[in-house]
């Protein structure tokens, strides 16, 4: 596949290191890998799925209560990380040179990867949005423990590069929508 922006470019960017690092690089990479695998099976653009998977939690913020302890329940109740994440992901992608339509599709998948902050109702997710939501759910652990999984920089970069080359080598059998 032809791509302007690789996962490696996003991974090494200080914005991703800072904000994706906050909610766990190990979780982000694992969701990107899962999103790639599911995208291939569902005929969804694996480049967009992997990028949205990597960036889906980039909107997380202040994890701690006044006592310095992280209050997971309180955070969950008041959380809008998907909203902040969509904007941060979009800014980073555009800065790195992403196609505008793709940047929007990825940002929307970040926005809708969880419905926990939305009023009750039925969302009709696009195939790309579904892939990212399923990949995230598949990697979650009780009590938010997936955010604490550790990975060192060298291993993280190796996995990111491996995923980049899988995407580069991917030849879609059918022609999917560019921003499906
Ligand atoms: Fe997540």
UniProtKB/TrEMBL annotation:
CDD domains reported for this sequence: HDc (cd00077)
UniProt domain HD/PDEase: residue ranges: 20-150
InterPro entries the UniProt entry points to: HD/PDEase_dom, HD_domain, HDIG_dom
Protein name as it appears in the record: HD domain-containing protein
UniProt organism field: Oceanobacillus bengalensis
């Amino acid at each position: 596949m032809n791509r302007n922006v690789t996962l490696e470019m996003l991974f090494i960017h200080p914005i991703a290191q800072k904000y994706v690092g906050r909610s766990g690089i190990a979780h982000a990479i694992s969701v990107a890998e899962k999103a790639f695998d599911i995208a291939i099976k569902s005929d969804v653009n694996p480049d967009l799925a992997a990028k949205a998977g990597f960036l889906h939690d980039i909107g997380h913020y202040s994890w701690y209560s006044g006592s310095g302890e992280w209050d997971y329940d309180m955070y969950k109740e008041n959380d809008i990380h998907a909203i902040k994440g969509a904007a941060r992901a979009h800014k980073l992608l555009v800065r790195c040179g992403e196609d505008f339509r793709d940047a929007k599709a990825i940002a929307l998948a970040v926005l809708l990867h969880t419905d926990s902050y939305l009023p009750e109702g039925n969302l009709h997710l696009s195939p790309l949005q579904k892939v990212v939501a399923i990949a995230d759910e598949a990697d979650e652990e009780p009590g938010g423990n997936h955010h604490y999984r550790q990975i060192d920089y060298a291993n993280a970069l190796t996995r990111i590069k491996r995923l980049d080359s899988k995407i580069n080598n991917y030849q879609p059998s059918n022609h999917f929508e560019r921003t499906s």
